[in-house]
Amino acid sequence: MENNKEKANLRKFLLENRDAISFDLIKIASKHIQKNLRRLDAFRDAKSIASYYPIGSEVKTQEIMQEMLSEGKTLALPKVKGEDLEFRKVTDFGNLEKAGFGIMEPKDWCSVVEDIDVVLVPTVGITRSGVRLGYGFGYYDRFLKKTGAKTIALTYAKQIVRHIPQAENDVKVNWIVTENDCIDASKEG
Question: Which of 74, 87, 94, 180 is positioned for an S-S bond with 48, CB 3.0–4.6 A?
Answer without folding.
Answer: 74
